[in-house]
Design brief:
Elements (H helix, E strand, L loop, with lengths): L2 E5 L2 E4 L10 E5 L5 E9 L2 E9 L8 H27 L7 E3 L9 H15 L16
Parallel strand pairs: 1-6
Antiparallel strand pairs: 1-2, 2-3, 3-4, 4-5
Helix pairs in contact: 1-2
C-alpha cells in the first residue's frame, strides 16, 4: 500500500488492488480508521468527492473527513498524477509530508491528458452501441 501524502494526522495511500476508476484514495487516521475518497474529475477539474466505507474499518471522523476533502481539493492534481504513475506506469511514488494547505496552481490540461490515458488503460476499446430496432406496434 503505497503512502502518497501525510497531512496533519492523516495518511493518504493507494490500496494495492485499487486499480479501478474513479481515481480514489484511502485516508487513515491515528486510530486506524479509514475512509475511501472517490475523485470525480471532469475535463481535468475535480467536480466532486464521494466517500465510501472501507469494509472492516470505521470511517475517519467527520472533522477528519472535512480536512481530507480540503486536502484533496487542493492536491487532486498531484493525487491523480501519483495514481497514474503507480497504477498505469508501475512507477514507485514518493510520500510527501504537507504541513499546511497553500494556494495550488493546477494544470487542468495535463490532468485531462492523464485521465484520457487512464481511460485508454481501463477502457481499451469503445463499446459499440447496440443497433436500434424498429418497433412493430400494431
Amino acid at each position: 500500500m503505497p503512502q502518497i501524502f501525510r497531512f496533519l494526522n492523516l495518511i493518504f495511500f493507494f490500496a494495492t488492488r485499487g486499480e479501478h476508476l474513479p481515481i480514489h484514495v484511502h485516508v487513515s487516521d491515528n486510530d486506524g480508521n479509514q475512509t475511501i475518497f472517490d475523485l470525480i474529475i471532469v475535463d481535468g477539474v475535480l467536480t466532486d468527492i464521494k466517500t465510501r466505507k472501507k469494509a472492516g474499518f470505521d470511517h475517519i471522523s467527520k472533522k477528519n473527513q472535512g480536512l481530507a476533502k480540503a486536502f484533496i481539493y487542493a492536491y487532486y492534481a498531484q493525487i491523480a498524477t501519483k495514481w497514474f504513475q503507480h497504477f498505469v506506469l508501475n512507477q514507485k511514488v514518493k510520500i510527501e509530508t504537507v504541513n499546511k494547505l497553500d494556494n495550488i496552481v493546477v494544470n487542468t490540461d495535463e490532468i485531462a491528458s492523464q485521465i484520457s490515458e487512464l481511460n485508454k488503460h481501463f477502457y481499451p476499446t469503445e463499446k459499440k452501441q447496440p443497433a436500434k430496432t424498429k418497433s412493430t406496434k400494431k
